[in-house]
Write a structure and sequence with these properties.
Blueprint lengths: L1 H23 L8 H8 L1 E6 L7 E2 L5 E2 L1 H13 L2 E6 L5 H6 L5 E7 L2 H6 E3 L4 E10 L12 E5 L3 H8 L7 E5 L2 H10 L4 E5 H7 L9 E19 L4 H14 L2 H8 L10
Parallel strand pairs: 1-4, 1-5, 8-9, 8-10
Antiparallel strand pairs: 2-3, 5-11, 6-11, 7-10, 7-11
Helix pairs in contact: 3-9, 3-10
C-alpha cells in the first residue's frame, strides 16, 4: 500500500513538474496578453496628466480617479499597476510596441479605435466642451478666433468636423492641460476639452479659476473605455473586475471623491 501511494505521489509530482516546465518554457510570442502580463506581474498603464483623472497631488504622488480605479482593478486581477506617462498622439504605437499594456486615461471609444484595439465596456460618460476666459461665457460664435485642443484627441476631431468651428483658427497642442494654459495666457481664445477635465481643473480653487465652460455649447457625447491590444484576453478580465467594483460600491466611492459619480455608467 505504501509503495502504491509513493508511486501515485511521484506520478503527481512528475505531471506537475511537466506542466510547470511547459508553462515556463513557452515562447513569449506564444503567450496570450493575459499570460504575458501575469508573467511580468504588472500592468503598464499609459496615461497623460490631467485632473481629475491622473495628476500629481500636493504630496508629490500620482493620484486621481483613473489612478485609483486602475489600482483597484489591478488588485482584483492580481497584478501591480505601473503608470507610464505617454504622448497621446503616439498611444497606439506604444500599445502595439508593448511599451505599455493598456491606455487608461479618459480614452473616448470610437469606431476607428474599436477596429484597431480591444476596448473594455464603457465606464464613464463624457462630452467635449468649449472653455474660455471668464466674461466670455456667452460666446455664440468662434469665427476668426484661435482654438486649441490636444493633438489626436476627441477635441481635435470635434473642431475638424463640427460646422461650429468651420471659420476658427485651430492649433493642436500636446495635451489638454496645455490647451487650458494657452487660454489662460491669452495665446488662444478658447479650447475644446473633456467635460470631466473641466470638473477638476477649472473654476474656484484651481489653477485656472479664471476659465469657464460655455454652457450653451457642448459637443460629441462620448463614453470612456480602457484599450488593450487587438484580440487581448485582458479586456474581459478588466470588464469582470469593473463589474465587481461597481457591485461592491468601490467604484462609486472612488468616483464621488472626484465629483464624478454622475458620470459612471458601469452596470
Amino acid at each position: 500500500m505504501k509503495k502504491a501511494l509513493s508511486l501515485i505521489l511521484a506520478l503527481v509530482l512528475a505531471v506537475s513538474a511537466m506542466l510547470m516546465f511547459g508553462a515556463c518554457g513557452k515562447d513569449a510570442a506564444d503567450l496570450t496578453d493575459a499570460e504575458y502580463i501575469a508573467d511580468k506581474g504588472e500592468l503598464v498603464i499609459g496615461i497623460t496628466y490631467f485632473e481629475p483623472m491622473n495628476y500629481i497631488g500636493a504630496d508629490g504622488e500620482l493620484t486621481g480617479f483613473e489612478t485609483e480605479f486602475a489600482t483597484a482593478v489591478c488588485e482584483k486581477i492580481g497584478v501591480k499597476p505601473v503608470f507610464q506617462k505617454i504622448e497621446w498622439k503616439t498611444k497606439e504605437i506604444e500599445l502595439n510596441g508593448k511599451t505599455i499594456d493598456c491606455i487608461w486615461n479618459g480614452m473616448t471609444i470610437t469606431d476607428d479605435r474599436l477596429a484597431t484595439m480591444s476596448i473594455s465596456v464603457p465606464y464613464m460618460a463624457n462630452k467635449q466642451v468649449l472653455v474660455v476666459k471668464a466674461g466670455n461665457e456667452n460666446l455664440t460664435s468662434v469665427d476668426g478666433l484661435s482654438i486649441v485642443a490636444e493633438s489626436e484627441s476627441a477635441g481635435q476631431e470635434v473642431i475638424e468636423t463640427d460646422a461650429f468651428f468651420a471659420n476658427a483658427e485651430f492649433t493642436a497642442v500636446t495635451d489638454q492641460a496645455t490647451a487650458l494654459l494657452e487660454v489662460k495666457n491669452g495665446t488662444a481664445d478658447a479650447c475644446v476639452v473633456d467635460y470631466v477635465l473641466s470638473i477638476g481643473m477649472i473654476g474656484a480653487g484651481t489653477s485656472y479659476e479664471d476659465l469657464v465652460v460655455v454652457d450653451s455649447q457642448a459637443f460629441a457625447d462620448e463614453e470612456y473605455g480602457v484599450a488593450f491590444r487587438q484580440g487581448s484576453d485582458m479586456t474581459e478580465k478588466v470588464n469582470q473586475a469593473m463589474a465587481e467594483l461597481k457591485a461592491d460600491g468601490t467604484l462609486d466611492t472612488i468616483a464621488a471623491k472626484y465629483k464624478l459619480q454622475e458620470q459612471i455608467i458601469v452596470k
